[in-house]
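Researcher: We're teaching a course module on how sequence relates to structure. For the next exercise, students receive a sequence and then see the predicted structure as tokens, so they can try to spot secondary structure elements on their own. Here is the exercise chain.
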Amino acid sequence: MSWTSAIDLKHWADTLASRGELPLLLRRLVRSTVPDDATVLFPAGEQIGRPGFDGVVVTSRGNQFVPTGKSCWEAGVNKGCAQKAKEDFDSRTASESAETRRESIFVFVTPREWRKKDEWAEQQELSTDWKGVVALDANDLEHWLETLPHVDAWFSHQTGSRPEGVLDLSLRWKALREVADHPLLPEVFITSRESAVTELREWVASPPGSLLLRSSSVEEGLDFLCAAVGSHADAAEAGFERLVVIDEVSAWRRLAASHRPLILTASVAAPLSAEDVAGAIASGHHVLIIAASRGGTANREMVLPRQDAYAVEQELLQCGFDASTAAALARSAGGSTTIFKRLAAKHPFSTIPGWAGGEVRERLAPFALLGGWRHTTAEPPVEPLFPIHLPLDVDCVCDLAGVSREQLDELLVRWTDCDDALFLRFGESVVLASREDAWHRLGPLITPSVLGRFEELASLVLSEDNPAFELPEKDWWLANLYGKTTSLSAGFRRGIVESLALMATIPTSNQTTNPDFSTIIRGVLVKSLPEGSSWRRWATFDRQLEVIAEADPEFLLSRLEGDLRSAEPEVPKLLVQRSDGVFPTWTHCGLLWALEILAWEPAYLERVTKILCLLAEREQEIPGNYSNRPSNSLREVFLSWNPQTNATTEQKLAVLRRARVAHQDVIWRFLVSQLPDGIDSTSHPTARPKWRNWAAGWSQERNQSNWREYAFSLIDLLIEEAGLVPERWAQVLNGVFRCGDSVTERALSTLDRIADSGTEVDPSGRLWTAMGRIVRSHRSFAEADWAYPEAILSRVEDVGSRIEPSDPVVRHQWLFDRHVELPGFSGVGSDHSEYEHELSQKQKQALREIVQEAGWLGVERLIANVERVHGIGWTVGENQLLKPTDFNLIGALTSDDENRRVFSHDYIFSSVSFAGLAFLDSLELGTMDPAHAAALACAAPYQRSTWDWIDQHLSPQIADLYWNKCRGWAMQMPQDDVSFAVERLLEAKRAFSASSHVHQASHNNPIDAETAARVLEAGFVRDANVEPVDQIDSYAIQELIGELQKQDAFDQARLAKIEYGYLPLLDRHTSRTQPKTLFAELSKNPQLYIELLTLVYRSDEDDAAEERLDENAVAQAKRAHDLLDAFKTIPGTGEDDAIDEAALQAWVDEARRLAAQVHRADIADRNIGHLLANYPSNDLQAWPPQEICRVIESIATMPLRESFVIGVINSKGVCFKPQEGGDPLRRKAESYRLRASSLQADYPNVADILRDLAAHSEATAERDDSDAARRRLGR
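Model: And here is the predicted structure for the students to work with:
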């Protein structure tokens, strides 16, 4: 029996839609009739106007409806079907070739009754040369549909008859895509689940069987199917055309009896028995069962993961949602499209989740006030290595909800493992699937008594300071090890603050109690962040300040303003870097992000701007390479081409104008940064509100459409601020000239006014220097597209000539910049040596003028202000522009000012280079204080003639001081001179410097192994070296050791001692040179190995309380530990990792024997196990190799087994790929278990070790799965 009758077809033919849908009907009918390799072409919908036949079919096997071979189809819904058939037949007969007609059967189809169709077809076939003629009418289509129930079910929905018990996915999709304010794309439901679509396609192509689709709810699974199947025109190609969703058992059984293979899917309304499923599969059908995440079995199953919040956000943007709404919906949906539909629905609906109906919702209502908690047991299961303070989350949850721990567990199990769950679990963490959804459904049921308990709890929770702040700042990162953690978990605290934001932004529908949420919010915040709060109190809130900004913006702004107005404000202390070294800690980021959130709302922009300005005035505590700073937040909010606020242009400008009154420097720096030559072309997103719609409607595209008006208004404001101040114009001149003709003219006119305002209008010379730099640079590159026109340069040059400083120091200072533009030298095609010569001549002439007009004082002012002081002393000394008696040479050389020291050093070096050693004679060093004499001698060229002069003319005391202090470079030095310097440095106990000399000399001469060894050995002998460790040239040491390792003839025992002496420098992470001689010795010498163990570990019989180690013993223990830790070479292994089992076993046996003699047997076994774990595990099917298995089995002590497991785990490091979760570790666990099974008979202890590794990998995989799921949800 068909759901569609001939009468239904006739009525459907009268509709306008039938013309476009008839080809689609035929396409589905034919596809379901012919083999998969047949050609089926039926343009439908918008394609029906294409030229050619309405359809073409080529099949090797047909039936009573589809001819075998090639058939050409025409179809029409016209009432005069005979006339339509005649017209189409005559037209095609005339247009098609005789060859086409002879090989094709002409088929005409009408959904109307045509009783004489067979007579017509027979007449046409006899009168023409067509291979055959067939006519099908409504009666034929009815019978055809009866043979294809899945097509019949689909078409009956199109005709409006709506068959009982069968759902149409395409119609459901049409409704689904319209649930929100913008039409939804299929990707909204499919994103993050693409692999599930692929797996579904593969299952459809496989032999008949069952597939259990697990999803967070049955509705979620149906929506996924709708998007994956019902929305796609290529459903037939994917095999999905045969899919039928059934919601009545009777319909299931009817369709299961069909001889056509179908994909049968039951909705939750159709409870099926095992016999129903098995019978359908036996009949050749695929059976798809959709179930909640747990429960149900199948011979194959697929989990539909929760969606990635960011991916959903991107798809919602494509649908037309604004950025703010898209982000809020994606985050709030918790990865569930079912929740998304409830939150995004534009029309009222009546379906609710199970936890929001009946009496249970009153018990669950308090949980709407909690975002999540850590669900821990009362005590840790094992004795912890470090102090562990379990959070009190569960106790607080029970108190708020008024339940016992057992009742809480029951509620958690009931409403986590269910359809459309309220809770999600990630390991120990419990979170609400959607805070907003729970608030909408449960919030109205929260009683005043529960609210009172919540206010008390929130005040208590948020008033606790971070205990880590009780530690020294350098130990904050170790807070967990010291047990300095908050009483409640971070997730619990975050949930409490989020509840305040929910109260403030989403009103409940409870009109009976009408709770005053604003009073509760303010009460909690006043208690937890009172006036005069310390920086530690502010820092404890950290990122929770972002949520507070939305919960009660007035409170947060008032607290900040009050603190910054106080005599000793605490908030600026957040800007200080609290610890240094590897782990710098910042406490101000949450505050800045909170202010950025508030800046989106125009009503708060002015107050936020003032606070950012006050903080920017104190941001010098933040290192320059750290971008998260108040001035950068200010920049992003007001950025000319992408301001991140919803304030209008007029509002932004008004705020900036008022802010510049009190914060002139901060606003000036911002305005300068917006000029074309100084603006950063990047923009970083600021923090956006999550709970309020302050950012709604904002888009970067809208900013770009009206940026010019705002940008030029900022330029106007900058010109106003610059006024007639030369120093300010020096900063902005180059950028202003790039802002268009009108702005350039205003700038040039202002420059004229400055020039005409008096004499010496630019005493600092900054404006004059900037103008000269512009003229020189743009004339040198006049052909470049960025060069200013000559008309501008001429006017700039004219103004420059009128404001030229009279001070020669100011006038010539530009010649000593790091890069100097000289007229005629563009850098393109210019001879660099000519440029250097020209620059040198100009610098020489400038220095002559300075010395002539201002003497040493002028030079002193010059070196104090130039960018590049190097070269000034050289030029002055080379040309003897100043004599040593013209200034305090020794005072400059020993000054605390680096520029003065550089100048005097260059002056002496240059003077000796050009005047010879006679210059040193003229200084009369022998009459000076020995330290001063040595300092002056150290500035002379570092070469043999200087050393000989010192030995001949100065006392041994001064010579010794010289060799104690001198610095030099031995790269180009003759070998004899290098040897001389090395010996003198060794005499001065400067072994590190001597090592550097030997290494530098090796670039031109081969290294003498004995000399290299001597300087290296002297470096770690206390009495032979006085240089501090921070002066060591690590690279030189590593290279020298590396060279000695290449010389096979060198004494290996001696080299091993050298490697041990420099072991900290041979770390495998930082050095290419490894202590491989030591490693080789250890792999052959078990006695040395045990001696090192003895240095590191106490004897089993020692009393730790009585043991006192001196500083040297501690240092020796650390070095021995580092060596053992770096030693990865398994004794008996070669370069190809092949193992000499006899050598390995002998080494292990001897090491264990020696360890037992010194009462360190267990320690030795642990270290041996750790060592054996280093064997490469490239192929887990053959790991560990048989040789290591036999060694392990011969010992099999628990210390060895445990350390082998730990060694393997530690050797893998940390590698987490968020998108993969725990899958890589799960695959590794399977490999471990397979290998354990193969080794069980011969090596049972090794098999146990492998099973332990598999269990650890599986447990870690579970944690990785939870972490990946949380990341996808943005939790």
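Model: If you want an answer key for the exercise: Residues 352-528 form one domain. DSSP finds 61 helices and 14 strands in the chain.
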